[in-house]
Amino acid sequence: MGLFEKIKAGLSKTKENIQHGLNEIFSSFRKVDEEFLDELFELLLLSDVGYETAEGIIEELRKRAKLEKIEDAQTLKTVLRDIIAEKMTGENELVINTQPSVIVVVGVNGVGKTTTIGKLANLLKQQGKKVIIAAADTFRAAAIEQVEIWAERAGIDIVKHKDGSDPASVVYDAIQAAKARGADVVICDTAGRLHNKKGLMDELAKITRVVSKELPDADKEILLVLDATTGQNAIVQAQNFKEATSVTGVVLTKLDGTAKGGVTISVRDIAQVPIKLIGVGEKIDDLQPFVPVEFANALLDMEED
After folding, report:
1. CA distance 241 to 246
2. Ramachandran angles phi, psi of 252, nearest 5°
3. pLDDT, tens only, 95-123
4. Do 149 and 33 sit in the same domain of this protein?
5. Is there a single domain that holds both residue 174 and residue 59?
6. E strand segments, the chain
7. How far is CA 218 from the centre of its chain?
């Protein structure tokens, strides 16, 4: 199954939700009037596109329809697709060009952080990169064992210490191992944290200091894992984490388990954090690079250009 097909399949619940409404709205389309735009606005809200983002989409659609004198439904739907894609576009690719590069993975407990790390390690391995995982969540019982299972499944090296060890020392050892073994990427697991838990945020700051000291010129990503099923709460988390630490991108998980995938649009638009990866299933290869236009095509059930 190709990337586009995987996204379409993974978005089936959201797609059914928005597609049914779109078919009804567009089947009775006569012109771009306020009644039509109001119906579309309500549909976006039902798909968990935030109010502010939905308002922006409708305003832009109104403007372009008038400017381009759009009178047919298919052209209008294409313009809607383009607007949605534009809302999500910006720095969507992982920046991991140095050897080694470092990816620090953060997020609250329960969002699928450990699973994401295993899938990300597998994705990078499939791209020909040598990966090492730093099991730096030494705070939660069984976290090390869980990430170890994923590393074994993906055939990835792992650096671990015992429970309760200093997470920064695990990251330090993983970086040394990466240098010695010629690894391309170090992926650092971290304890699930809330942005307002000072001890955990201090721990994260210590980890990033170690990375900066040991690899001052390396590409570094701090990826925030968000659960799409939490809807608008994911946006709040993105805003809070962005204020507390230098988040460079978002991984949105469990898109296959929600009818509210519209939150994807708002994360980029409101929180101003680029989405870099999306999870569209439970299998190890169901973590996908985020391509805005492919996502918008899948969301509106349109074919690729």
Report:
1. 8
2. -100, 115
3. 999 999 999 999 988 888 999 999 999 99
4. no
5. no
6. 101-106, 131-134, 157-159, 185-188, 220-227, 249-253, 275-279, 287-289
7. 22
Output the CA torsion sign for 261, 265, 270, 276: positive
What integer pLDDT is reported at residue 292 of this predicted model?
92
The label of the residue with tokens 């954090």 reads 273
Say how far apart CA 220 and CA 90 lie, in whole Å.
17
Mean pLDDT for 24-41 is 86
Residues 123 and 210 in one domain: yes
- The domain containing residue 76 runs over which residues? 3-88
Q: Is the dihedral of CA 230, 51, 15, 10 positive or negative?
A: negative
Q: Are residues 30 and 124 in the same domain?
A: no
Longest dimension (CA), the chain: 66
**Residue 138 and residue 277 share a domain:** yes
Note if the pTM is more than 0.85: yes
Query: DSSP secondary-structure letter at 47?
Result: T
Mean pLDDT of all residues in 77-87: 93
Q: What is the rounded CA–CA span in Å between residue 70 and residue 74?
A: 10
Q: Which residue bears the tokens 């170090």?
A: 186
Let me know: does 132 contact 178? Beta carbons within 8 Å.
Answer: yes
Pair 131, 203 in one domain: yes
What is the model's pLDDT at position 170?
97
Q: How is residue 264 written in tokens?
A: 């994807």
How many structural domains comprise the chain? 2
Paired strand residues for 79: none
Amino acid present at 168: A
